[in-house]
Amino acid sequence: MILGDLDKIDIEILRLLQDDASLTNKEISSKLHKSIATIHERIRKLKEQGYIKRIVAILDRKKINRNLIAFSHVLLKEHTAATLIAFETEVSKFNEVMECFQMTGAHDFILRIATRDMEEYHEFLRNKLATLPNITTVQSYFVLSEPKSHTAYPI
Amino acid sequence: MILGDLDKIDIEILRLLQDDASLTNKEISSKLHKSIATIHERIRKLKEQGYIKRIVAILDRKKINRNLIAFSHVLLKEHTAATLIAFETEVSKFNEVMECFQMTGAHDFILRIATRDMEEYHEFLRNKLATLPNITTVQSYFVLSEPKSHTAYPI
DNA sequence: TTTGAAAAGGAAACTGG
DNA sequence: CCAGTTTCCTTTTCAAA
Question: What is the dihedral of CA A115, A120, A125, A126, to 10 degrees?
């Protein structure tokens, strides 16, 4: 037991699926030297127990014209529970917002914003983000390059 | 043609698969009112042409004890091509580093770091990140909560 | 490109070891 | 945990429109 309920085989399955979820049970079974039935049962449980949340396709953002990724650091005026929740709720509705994190430290939230280009980011900022009440400042930093990009957690 | 080579059906397929790549061709075909063979052929091309980079499992990070996510803002001393590449190469080798972005603005790189807890982050910082040459400062910000978390690009 | 249909292969469920 | 079996479903291929 390395990780709660999970043994080494579960961990290996999760590693493989984080990298390539289109592997068949047969392929996994031969990689891990276990039977197909075992792999099938393990994966069923891993999904049922919520270790695997979802299976998704990762797109090439350049090819779909999401050329600009920004990290927007947001500072709010007030930090009451109500204003925090209101901000989170409203900002999550914008489809340019891929991720929203409440943070420790110098800023209250970091947003990951995906847009076609700077013009679209500018519009997002003026017409969407900056219209939300209770914002003090937004500092925008833009991605120049992405030397490493993974959705897989180290386990 | 909304997006280069892609028509509305391709876009819809990409939307669906970004959300749930375990949909069968049959399910997609009935959602989009096209034949299974058409959907199959479209997806084959979307993969071949590189729109779909990979299919991955997204895990519940709390359940696998990656409880702490940090955004580490790194400032380097020098910005020659060689030192930038050296930094990118070395930092990408650390498995705690899920993503590495070269940025415009106040800092050179933003790293997304996943660790079990603050102690493990501290070890990562002392024994790995801070040992790299050419670093001036590392500012660490930690995720308190994740109100929105998506891998899907708006298309 | 799209389609329906056929062939091949994998998933799911079950047995018994 | 595994091997085998049966059934069902999905993927893959293909000829035709």
Answer: -160
Which among A63, A103, A144 has CB closest to B51?
A: A63
Q: Which residues on chain B are in Cβ contact (under 8 Å) with A150?
A: 98-99
**pTM over cut 0.90:** yes
Name the residue type at position B133: P
Instruction: Report how many domains make up chain B.
Output: 2
Q: Which two tokens stand for residue B14?
A: 């990409």
A19 with B56: Cβ contact below 8 A:
yes
Could you tell me if A43 and A25 are in contact, meaning their C-beta atoms sit under 8 angstroms apart? yes
Asked if residue B37 and residue B96 are part of one domain, the reply reads no
Nucleotides of C under 7 A from a protein CB: 1-5, 10-15
- What range does the domain containing A29 cover? 8-48
Window A:25-84, CB contacts with B under 8 Å: 49-61, 63-66, 69, 71
Chain segment B66-125, per-residue pLDDT in tens = 999 999 999 999 999 999 999 999 999 999 999 999 999 999 999 999 999 999 999 999
